[in-house]
Request: fold
Amino acid sequence: MSRKTTRSSVVVLVVATMLCAGCANYATPRRAADMSLFGVVTPEQRQHMTDAQIIRVMERQPLAAFPTGIAYVRVQEPGYRSYKTDSYGGGKYSVVLARTVERDADIERLANLPMVHGLAPMNRLLLPRQFHDDKDLRQAAASLHADMVLIYTFDTAIRMGDNTSPLDVVTLGFLPHKRARVTTTASAVLMDTRNGYVYGVAEASARHEQPANTWTTSDAIDQSRRRTEAEAFERLVVELERTWLGVINEYALPPDVPSES
Reply:
């Protein structure tokens, strides 16, 4: 081997060694931190961590067409009865078929909501005798060809004086120097008839107070109860109007078309 060849080989070896040395000193970045440590989960992890029943609820999609028809019904606890009204059906809840506190004007307001082509009450001919869940009401709404069902209820309590616990029984002439308070909260949910998808909820309350000595008859007490529930329902209708505007903005109106520049 000549001296020239030897010198060339040494140069190549030095350059290669320098390049390899550079490669040996480079460490590639490692993987990302496990973000689940900070409450962040992947879709696969979320699916695994969620109860099967909750998954079925979350996967429901709105199916109603617009304009839409709505069936409405009032539900109460099992065995519910008021002074002059009994409920219908057994099971996990009951249905009040008589419209005792819902004013015609309030029902008309709901019927005249935009994108609503009909509002129909349910009757006992469409309902089963035992109620288990919302499906029983949705099947009745389907018989009316209603795309949605509006379910509402009243929670009414009567209290005396400073007592915070509601009374189960009001004795006539009881504590004549006390103030009697009637409080009602009306709650409603708007569901898709086909699959139970919840479009929205609404709630409103009303309260009346008067001297307890004015309650000398059962009719007087019931009149106060009905007046409070009627006011709560009227306020509920106002909240439902607001809820409905949100529903049609999200599900009924087409998305805005971007303007041409």
